Amino acid sequence: MCRKLRVLNAVSYFQIGIPITLTQLEKMSLRVLIDRLVLRRHFCLAIRICEYMQVPDTEGASRILAHWACYKVQQSNVSDQQLADQIAQKLGDTRGISYSEIASRAIDSGRRELAIRLLDYEPRAAEQVPLLIQMNELTRALEKAISSGDTDLVYTMVMQLKDSLTREKFLMTIQQLPVALSLYMQLCRLEDKTELKDMYEMLDRKGDKASVCVEMALDATAPQKRLDWLEEAKMLYTTGRHLFEAKVTDDQIKLLGHQKMLEGKLSSKFVGLPLSDTMYQLMLRNSPFVEKLRSEFKVPDKRYWWMKVKALAEAHNWLELERFAKSKKSPIGYEPFVNACHDNGSRSEAVKYIARVTPESQVKCYVQVGSLEVAADRAFQLRSEELLEYVQSRCGASRRSLVEKINSMKAQLAQMRR
Fold first, then answer.
1. Do 209 and 196 form a contact (C-beta atoms < 8 A)?
2. What is the overall mean pLDDT for the chain?
């Protein structure tokens, strides 16, 4: 009660001129009284009353300071810099105050430069950017978006800038902002590779531009269009002295030419396949053209043998597989022959190659084809208790006699060691 009476005494002073009774104050509420003081520009008294009556800052001092700042920006007799400094010094980091709202009032008052200066004190980029866009300060808005670290906001600003400026002006502007440039390039890589290619051209990055051409070639469905993109990529790699990439691209161009020819001859899909898959398809058909590809692209022997063994076994071309095995010493060994025959359902063909497998692997190969007794005998010949245990672990309950035989073999090996 005493506090309210002191407030009534303060506002009834002749310089304030609001003589009201206690009943009237309780009827209208303290907030309305504060609003009346603000409208009469008695900001200092309004703040003191709020502090004295312990009104929360968001409803009291902060709100009043915001009104004070909005009033100050309408004063035309003070310079923009001086006024911005006064407001910033008075408000500081007071909670509940939005510098963007004050800047908006400055814009309404025709004080554009003051609004820009006030926005520098606004900590929330999401509040700064819309007002900067409103003032057509697009480059500054983009810089604020970048400094905020908000990727979505940066993307929004980049697209706003692109729509508002000419293409040349946009590219010149974004080139000076590495973060925005990087994000825009990521967007172009997903949505517009032609634009990305033009960006690399502007930046004189021939290697990157060539890489985009390669991506566009892979995306192309028409063989001729794919070839055109690869030719352009090869030229760019060469002029940019990316010799390895130029050689790889040249090989791809040659492969594409061969694939177009094969599609015409064999009436099958080849364009777009990797070299290995192309050769594999030819091996399934036992086509002699595979040797030309092997020679032209310098396919390593091991890689060639792996493909040939798998393809001949898949085609069930057992006679040709046997000839191939006898043609020269296998650089990959003969276990792949066993595996390929077994995987393609021919146990008898798999057995043919076990004798040529290394002794240590023969036991596992015999187990793989189901010849457990032969596997046990071979393990005993190698005097390997470990391999005997391996064979024994593969014996089911129905192979009791073999299990006993293996136990006998293990006992003999143990006796031999003594």
1. no
2. 80
